[in-house]
Amino acid sequence: MNKYNYRLLPILATLSITFGCAQDEEAAADRARALHEEILTIDTHDDIPFNFATESVDPLDANRQVNLNKMREGGLDVAFFIVFVGQTARTQENYAKASADAMIKFNAIHRMTDEMYPEQIELAYTADDVRRIQESGKLVAAIGIENGYVIGQNLSLLEKYHELGARYITLAHGGHNDIADSATPNAGLGDDVSEHDGISDFGAEVIQEMNRLGIMVDISHVSKQAALEAIALSQAPVIASHSSTLALADHPRNMDDETMTALKERGGVIQTVALGAFVKTQPPEQIQARDALWTDMGIRNGREVRGLSGERLTEYDRRMGEINARWPAANIQDFVDHIDYAVNLIGIDHVGISSDFDGGGGIVGWSDASETLNVTLELLRRGYNQDQIEKLWGENLLRVWKEVERVASGLN
What we know:
This protein has 412 residues and is α/β, with parallel strands linked by helices. Helix content is 46%, strand content 10%. Residues 10-19 have low confidence and may be disordered.
């Protein structure tokens, strides 16, 4: 009996292009299931709300893209649960609030692993923990921080967050902070195009301390100059925890060839992200239609969409279906095109996979954790072998994590 109860999308019908008949399609699906069960799968970016791991948002079966049941169903072994705090004005009061908000999410992740479901999921503090926990039959949780704003100007908070399990930190998010320039400056906070011309002096100290502690430096969300400087400053390889390729989708959050090449030369990895707007450029008319729908229904952002239920959700799905029929949404083939591009540019050892589920991610074919097998199926269709798929799904990320740990041991 299979370890997981996989849910394959009807994309199997498209396999006739490659395999020619239903029998070949089913054989391909069987091969994908067998391979997927054998390999380690890591998704490096899954967001959580502030009321995570409560009666309102039960990690087991909450109506979200990632829950424990969906991880089991789709064969997703490891999820980096994200401590995200959005950028606000840089005042001492807001620094304190950002740190307090971060602790709410740290506590929620620990509540899930230590109190609510310790028999089902365990928190990994080291790269070796990941394999040990997975081999025990449990799911694996890891922690990433999205936005270095949660340390404010207090370098000592890095050690506290590391002790709590943080194993990567995205240096900035939407808007500049005291560490780095963002790829998406926040005009509402008075941001100019650039504030630090990349990484600030304080940011250089932050990277040095992250190296000492063994926290992976994450360059998703930062400006190109900040990314290049972070790569050069770090004594350990860096990651882009959830970014795709600029060449295939012209979005400021995506990475250009120069940045990806620099990442590769220092041993890093780009975790290609399945977020529709980063996978497939949306025409202005589509964005306008979506925004008009959001305005009409009183929706402010994508996170509020995921909170819809009942008749409102039915209405939203119907109307978004009409929009998507006019402008087809990004699908799993579009997503794997980004993987192909990155692999062709920087090599199989420097590319990984992420979803940004519950933070805007999700595409046709990989809309939640229960559909994770479909990524493996598409990779097989493209001709990737088992060793290559293992690297993409987690071995590359673990290699970087271990190297970060090795560098840290040499600095202490």
